Amino acid sequence: MRRSLFLQSPAQSSSPAAPSPEALSRLLYPAHRDLRARAFELLREPVFRLRYNETVAMERSRTTARIARVRQAGLLRDTVSRANEAGSRRYDVLIDVLALLDHSLEIRFGVNLGLFCATIRRLGSEEQYTHWLPRIEDGRDVGCFALTELGHGSNVRGIQTTARYLPDVQQFEIHTPHDLAQKFWIGAAAETANVAVVFAQLTVDAVHHGIHIFIVPLRNKHDMSLCDGITIADCGPKAGLNGVDNGRIWFDRVRVPRENMLSSMSSVSPDGRYSSSFTSPDARFGAQLAALTGGRVGIAFNAIEIALLGLTIAIRYSAKRRAFAPKKGAEEVPLLFYTSQQRLLMVPLATAFVYAFCARDLREMYYKSITTGSIGKDVHSLSAGYKAMFSWFMQDTLQKAREACGGQGYRSENRIAPIKADRDVMLTFEGANGVMLQQVAKVLLAELGAAAKNGGTYAKDSVVEALNTPPPPFPSGSCNSSKKLDQTFIYAALWKREDKLVKQLGERYGRMVRHWNGSAFQAWNDCLSVAEAAATAHMHRRMYDAHLVHVKHASVADAASGEALRLCGRVWAANTIASDESFLRLGCISAAQATDVVEQIDDLCKKMTSISEALLKGVGFPDHLLAPIAVDFVAHNARAKL
Amino acid sequence: MRRSLFLQSPAQSSSPAAPSPEALSRLLYPAHRDLRARAFELLREPVFRLRYNETVAMERSRTTARIARVRQAGLLRDTVSRANEAGSRRYDVLIDVLALLDHSLEIRFGVNLGLFCATIRRLGSEEQYTHWLPRIEDGRDVGCFALTELGHGSNVRGIQTTARYLPDVQQFEIHTPHDLAQKFWIGAAAETANVAVVFAQLTVDAVHHGIHIFIVPLRNKHDMSLCDGITIADCGPKAGLNGVDNGRIWFDRVRVPRENMLSSMSSVSPDGRYSSSFTSPDARFGAQLAALTGGRVGIAFNAIEIALLGLTIAIRYSAKRRAFAPKKGAEEVPLLFYTSQQRLLMVPLATAFVYAFCARDLREMYYKSITTGSIGKDVHSLSAGYKAMFSWFMQDTLQKAREACGGQGYRSENRIAPIKADRDVMLTFEGANGVMLQQVAKVLLAELGAAAKNGGTYAKDSVVEALNTPPPPFPSGSCNSSKKLDQTFIYAALWKREDKLVKQLGERYGRMVRHWNGSAFQAWNDCLSVAEAAATAHMHRRMYDAHLVHVKHASVADAASGEALRLCGRVWAANTIASDESFLRLGCISAAQATDVVEQIDDLCKKMTSISEALLKGVGFPDHLLAPIAVDFVAHNARAKL
Ligand SMILES: Cc1cc2nc3c(=O)[nH]c(=O)nc-3n(C[C@H](O)[C@H](O)[C@H](O)COP(=O)(O)OP(=O)(O)OC[C@H]3O[C@@H](n4cnc5c(N)ncnc54)[C@H](O)[C@@H]3O)c2cc1C
Ligand SMILES: Cc1cc2nc3c(=O)[nH]c(=O)nc-3n(C[C@H](O)[C@H](O)[C@H](O)COP(=O)(O)OP(=O)(O)OC[C@H]3O[C@@H](n4cnc5c(N)ncnc54)[C@H](O)[C@@H]3O)c2cc1C
């Protein structure tokens, strides 16, 4: 990149110094750097070469070959079989790298070593998990996670597969009563898994006990033929992720031994007495979906890595690809000269840096929950909120990156477009994004309800505790703070919007409950718009809180990294404020302040552009995971190469 | 759809009567309804069955088979060979239907009967087009359009392929001087075309005359072997549109006869005298790209049809698919019950109805230009603006439709996701969307400059003439008009935003030109953000103008259709206002008015929901072009069907 080209703005103050890529890299990827490097090296091998133009069958068998190679290289050893935090950390570092190459590879591991194992680890007895985890890790068995049905996805509590206890034979009978109850979308079920954790409605002695989980063999391992009573069909071609064999399963009165119910928290005695350590079905159901929380944490994390991958490709190309000259005969300028291209790519780059550290915080919180064994409200709402917002951000960024590269962005070999297709499912699985934001909003509503009983003060450990303390008012008549886009201004704007929207949500909900004569279901439905807005505003304020901590932390490691991160926060904040009319409508900022913000974005993006090369080096994705246009698009397309 | 479910809002006033699908259909598709019906019927044949899971080679040969069948069915007869408006109309009606099935099919016709023929028709002599058009129509030859090069896409004026006149032999020598000058992306060049219109820099007797167009044979027809001096490579797999064989072409001093230069407006005499009826190279270049304008008009039109296709699938599914029950044991509600789902799908549905009629206006204007032979400023700026805004709208809508269907939206057979991948290129080809909006903004800047010389008044035939007349002020202190979201309020809000942004653009540009010591190139680069905003605001106001005319027109045909269309306009306007902070920041509306607008959207979307079935029936896409989830997702996925 030729710096001089990006630094010719009139209004511009000085650009920050470029951060040290090495320091940035250590901030972003602090642990297991050796394993990370080994994984990147492995991906140079021919079996991992990027390929396109394949049928579903070809993609599946290629993914299977890749899984075998990862296993053979020993990289999976001591990951999930450890059943502890250290193992999870190794596993995550490995998957983070594989995810950059191939979403299908990530998900084939994800349903097997992720969802299947995490479910058994969290909800099975010690005997159950010490039996299964090593067998899955070394590939003796392949597990899948069978929750969703044709009729029930977002509303998984409504699944209709049944499990009846038969005391005479001490077995459970798993059954699919009708077509809507067929398991649907089960990753690895169509061809590759031999065993599943199956979610089903348990009945013992004609009493219904709600959803419980059963280990059910699907295939006979010696020849992978289907077990008795199992029918499996293929979900067929998808928009992407075709290396994953998603399947549909019907159970025809399939019997499994009593020991196959996951029993750390609920169990059925041989003679048919049901017992559970949970006091409410709600609590039990929440615990049963714990593995999904892990999945959401992973999606939140990887969404940002993938956004950075797309941005690396697009920014490197934009620095080299030229279009239009300042005058006749002069050399054409690189795309990154254009303020529109800077905005298109630098706002997402800054945002990715703000979010990346939020995602890392969430992961740390989640690791703690592995040790303590329970997932707090905080992790629950953050994982739901980040999962939704980061995956939407990822798709939006990939789309921008694709368009920024013009026609080249549409070629498969340049990766951005096929990655987008592969990743689109992240907005849906492990919880549809819209439904996730509703969950965040429901937490807010509950906090509001609790506060109402407490003189309007939020509880100390509440996710909105910060709303108890209004930000300091600005010196009257002065817009300095917005002119400089300083921290107090940004925080106050985000805080006020959150505060107002949370209150609006509470007010509207109360009004609607009265209107609907107490029907919470109807009332909530008339709050969805403000609920989504409140959840988003809440998440933004929390991200900014986290960001400020990370700026401090980074500054200690490397002053320039701290400054760079601070710049990212300002770009993100400016864009956030300029993208939502509610800051103005709700009176959180004045029109003059909004003007200050909007008018700074170009300049901020220029500054970002000047350090973008260093930021991308800090991220450090190796060339073999990038694309021809990120390296040398002319040489790659030369006639001599035909 | 069960109406009762969508009509239970507190604040709600009465819903409009459902329009007559028949009347709506006649408004949307007034002409050649017989041909349209025949084309839909043809698509029932096996060769047109929707397929997924194919390699590039399979997709290409399937597309070729489909082309043959359309030709054989006689549907192409008397279209482009007529070289007149009547022929174009028939052609468009046919392609509009084929486009619903298969983007590749549309584009294979598009480069051949569209771009190739339109270029020869507009720029060739009568002899040239009477020779070529019938041969292309009946398939004796297949043409392609070779403009873009590896090094030059948006800046096509910079292409570097050369054409030198050799008076001794009365030939032109077409040459690719280096790899950046290879023709790139040429649709049909990789395998299927035997002839191209090639854009190249003409030199006659060492004098450079700028870009001219040459008919260049690529392949020998008897065996499709490459002609001497031609090298062709494949652009390879793409994110979609893989039925089109995009190719790269190098010319190695290829000779064509003097008669092969398109010569209606410029020619070279046998002895090498250059003459042209154009006074400036700018005017000539504009005329040369005329075929692209036709392409943009087509993209604008089809973007809306495709958005409606995605919406038809998602809305029909959402009316049937159920999730969550109001209370335990009660029946679950359809997705369309949720206000969030209504908003997700009804805002785009309303928008599509507003835009559909704008696109029809543009097409009519374009037909006129076929008769008059020249494309006015108005068609130029509208086609650029609509191309960009409608194709972005289409992708945004398909994404929403995909997400609205949850996991089912990710299955290929449900069409939305693969259509999205196929269509994404529409944001790039025939002019990258961002560059298109810049073209609109440049027209605005020019109008502003002309007005400055005219006491601040815009010219009578100017695209911003409406800005000469401010809308009437609201009665002071009253928000009634925003509460009712009436036409005066909407128009005033749109008008003010456009007026302010256009002025801001002019002001900023002036300031930047001074700052950059007169460099228009640098100055314009520092205006891109406000330029895009001004262009968007201008387009929105013009769309609304057009919409009001169409409401009147529709009301005459069918009162309920008029009412329905009026509702669509209000939903579109409310969403437009609520999506852009600049209405508030620039003082076009007050915070109280903004609140009125935002608070009405739910209610408006409920009303839309209640008439959505009738609206979709009016659009009338037949089931065989929809998807299993649009028909009966349970029966389709039954075990009995395995
Ligand atoms: C490729 C793929 C792989 C998968 N792998 C697995 C797997 O291995 N195991 C497994 O068990 N499952 C798996 N799933 C299923 C996945 O978890 C579900 O698709 C997801 O939970 C959404 O459910 P659904 O598809 O039924 O969508 P629906 O529940 O039908 O939702 C569709 C839309 O309606 C909206 N909606 C639903 N409820 C509400 C509401 N209350 N309020 C407002 N809007 C609402 C949603 O926002 C969504 O956009 C997979 C799915 C896919 C696509
Ligand atoms: C599938 C496909 C089929 C095609 N078919 C044909 C065909 O048959 N014949 C043919 O001749 N061509 C064809 N094209 C080429 C197409 O017209 C070009 O891709 C398009 O014009 C964009 O050019 P580009 O790809 O070089 O993008 P670039 O010019 O490199 O632009 C890339 C990005 O930079 C931005 N940018 C560029 N200039 C500026 C600026 N001045 N200010 C701000 N931003 C800027 C753009 O907005 C764009 O997003 C096809 C392309 C594709 C992908």
UniProtKB/TrEMBL annotation, chains A, B:
Keywords: FAD, Fatty acid metabolism, Flavoprotein, Lipid metabolism, Oxidoreductase, Peroxisome. Residues 1-21 are annotated as: Disordered. FAD binds at T148, G187. GO terms for cellular component: peroxisome. It is found in: Peroxisome. Residues 144-254 form the Acyl-CoA oxidase/dehydrogenase middle domain. Pfam families: ACOX, ACOX_C_alpha1, Acyl-CoA_dh_M, Acyl-CoA_ox_N. Residues 291-445 form the Acyl-CoA oxidase C-alpha1 domain. GO terms for molecular function: acyl-CoA oxidase activity; FAD binding; fatty acid binding. This is Acyl-coenzyme A oxidase.
